[in-house]
Amino acid sequence: MKYDVVVVGSGPAGTVTARFAAENGAKVLIIDRRQEVGVPVLCGEGVSRKIDEWGMLEGKRWIACSMDGARIYSPNGTCVTLSAEMAGNETGYVLYRDIFDQELARQAVKAGAKIMLNTNAIDLLKENDKIKGVKAKQFDCEFEIESDIVVGADGVESKVGKWAGINTTLKLKDLETCCQYTLSNVDCTDAYCDFYLGKEIAPGGYIWVFPKGKDVANVGIGILGSLSEAGLAKKLLDKFIAKNSRLQSGEPIRFLAGAVPVSNPIDTVRDNLILIGDSARQVDPITGGGLTHCLEAGKIAGETIGKAIDEQDFSKDFLSIYEEGWKEAFGKKIKRNYMVKEILLGFEDKTLNMLGDSLKDFKFEEISTFALIKALVLKHPTLLMKLRPLMKVAKEA
Ligand SMILES: Cc1cc2nc3c(=O)[nH]c(=O)nc-3n(C[C@H](O)[C@H](O)[C@H](O)COP(=O)(O)OP(=O)(O)OC[C@H]3O[C@@H](n4cnc5c(N)ncnc54)[C@H](O)[C@@H]3O)c2cc1C
Fold first, then answer.
1. Full pLDDT tens readout for the chain, 397 residues
2. From 34, 92, 140, 281, which residue has the greatest number of CB atoms within 10 Å?
3. Closest CA to 340 of 390, 396, 292, 268
4. Are 101 and 37 spatial neighbours (Cβ–Cβ below 8 Å)?
5. Who lines ligand 1 at CB under 6 A?
6. Hey, which of 41, 42, 116, 263 would you mutate to test ligand 1's pocket, going by the most ligand atoms within 8 Å of its Cβ?
């Protein structure tokens, strides 16, 4: 088998890259070890309205709910409400993630890409250290797929990067351990995504309640690996649900557990190789959201691959067009939010309560991050020392 590009992984990072590579003239094969694209779902399914601007998805079947805004609860229950415009940056829609992934895959196929399911990448194919494709296994059959470029879109547990010699190891402090119920028979009559903060509620992370309909919601938790222990995420989530009057009558129709990388960016190109999506650690370290970045980076990757094929140049230098592109688009935001994550980790629940109290009546649309922090300090001058590092980061942004 010989292709221009083999994409390992049929998640959004893989299929969007495949689509744009195919549209730009590449002969593309996507392989995935799953038997159905997008299944099982491992996601809170919240996504920003930004995706509308990119026009990559047809129809609306992938949308479960449109959100009117978001609410953030501090540990003592103080609620800060974000308007649709403000919250839309992160929580515009709640998805049917399986349909979303399948729609992106359909677009890739429409552009000419081929897909092989039940197909596990087991190593890179190399000749004198040069990457020439992947070794794959389908059921009991092992075979080689030659290609000029391999795209590692194989998610948080990525092996492709490691096989290419990229250090993809995640420290426990850069990994969120997550679990989530989809609960039916709950009260979700208003279309708000809710976030609950606090060291006791979710150490180093948060609990989310994302409505998928009037009586169905994704209720999940992410806690930092370095603050976790076996079974803790589920225990904390169960405790939260049992105490919450909107949720306690709920029954699960789905349960999932997974992990999200919340690290600094890593190298994403080598000769003949590109990493993208969770495998490239392109996730927002504060929210743990990765979907919009997959779409944004996927377009840049696919277009870069098209140019590489035109020039027949698959060197790391040439493929760096992709790395420069995604770093320009959202790499700075990831770096900044990583610093903010580290600062927020040092905040006690008492400080979070003071922040909630200061922000509860705030008109967010009218204000920048820097001005927001200044206003916080005016209301609670004792926060000055704690917020000083945050002010520095906001000023530099
Ligand atoms: C609990 C949870 C909640 C989340 N909630 C949100 C949210 O609300 N909003 C948001 O934006 N993001 C969320 N995320 C993050 C989001 O799901 C990821 O950023 C996104 O799925 C990354 O897409 P991807 O294409 O890089 O990888 P994935 O979607 O993980 O796809 C990787 C694919 O590679 C395949 N694969 C892996 N190894 C191999 C191999 N060796 N051979 C063949 N195939 C292979 C897998 O089967 C999989 O299909 C959440 C994540 C978790 C775990």
1. 899 999 999 999 999 999 999 999 999 999 999 999 999 999 999 998 889 989 999 889 999 999 988 888 999 999 988 876 666 566 789 999 999 999 999 999 999 999 999 999 999 999 999 999 999 999 999 999 999 999 999 999 999 999 999 999 999 999 999 999 999 999 988 899 999 999 999 999 999 999 999 899 999 999 999 999 999 999 999 999 999 999 999 999 999 999 999 999 899 999 999 999 999 999 999 999 999 999 999 999 999 999 999 999 999 999 999 999 999 999 998 998 898 888 888 888 988 888 888 777 766 554 455 556 666 666 667 666 666 776 666 666 5
2. 281
3. 390
4. yes
5. 8-14, 31-34, 42-47, 120-121, 153-155, 159, 178, 180, 220, 258-260, 277-279, 283, 288-291, 294
6. 42
Adjacency order of strands within the sheet including 46-47: 46-47, 93-95, 63-66
- Spell 143-174 as b/e; 16+ CB within 10 A means b: eebebbbbbbbbbbebbbbebbebebebeeeb
Say which amino acid occupies 8: V
Residue nearest to atom 16 of ligand 1 (CA): 290
Cβ atoms within 10 Å of 44's Cβ, excluding its own: 28
Q: Which residues have C-beta within 8 Å of that of residue 218, sequence separation ≥ 6?
A: 44, 45, 46, 94, 180, 181, 182, 208, 209, 210, 212
Short-list 228, 298, 303, 302, CA closest to 262: 228
The secondary structure of residue 39, as a DSSP letter, is B
- The helix or strand, by DSSP H or E, that contains position 247, with its residue range, turns out to be none
Q: Which two tokens stand for residue 366?
A: 């009218």
Taking the C-alpha atoms of residue 49 and residue 202, their distance in angstroms, rounded to an integer, is 27
Predicted structure pTM score: 0.94
From CA 393, how far away is CA 391, in angstroms rounded?
5
Among 182, 210, 219, CA closest to 69: 210
